[in-house]
# Entry
Amino acid sequence: MDQAATTTEIGLEWREEVRPVPYPQAIARMDERVEAIRAGTARELVWLIEHPPLYTAGTSADPRELLDPRFPVFEAGRGGRYTYHGPGQRVAYVMLDLKRRRPDVRAYVHALEEWAIRALARLGVEAETRTDRVGLWVRRTDRNTPWVEDKIGAIGVRVRRWVAFHGLALNVEPDLSHFGGIVPCGISAHGVTSLVDLGIPATMADLDVALRSAFDEVFGPDGSFGRR
# Structure
């Protein structure tokens, strides 16, 4: 597996892949790492990757929301419904030991949301969450329609013996037409956007830097997630 860099910190490792990783291979590697973290033989990991074009079905996926299976469809095992992954989208697989950090799944999901919001803010995007629908949302003020909101990021997690995995996906410059094969996360009333679609000429590397710099604010020793 090609890696641009592997950076190890105390208790946490970061990896960034330079080529898209096939989904089955990523899941197998993630499963292995989760077991190693649980056993205490490996560090926690934040794995930043891209996938070839594909759809994943979460545990709540409704087959009627798979509109056009133009790409391979995989059972993900995470929470949520149908999601698209593909080039131009940064997927952050986050493998953390919640038993050690904070055994609270709801608080962990909120922390992932906060992490993504802070990272996107560094790139000039004001992303928000909504109580009635999942994901990260952007008001389309660039179109003079502030009542219109598009989704820029998805979150789906799984927890096994208090080790969390899967994570979040943020759109940098994917082909947005590829989302048309599904009802993204079961939500048909809103669209999908990306950094480039919003007029922000950010690269994947720019987002990676933002994710790294925002992580400790939420998950570090003094971050909100670590407080009880």
In short: The CA atoms of residues 58 and 169 lie 14 Å apart. The radius of gyration is 17 Å. The helical segments are 23-39, 98-101, 105-121, 204-219.
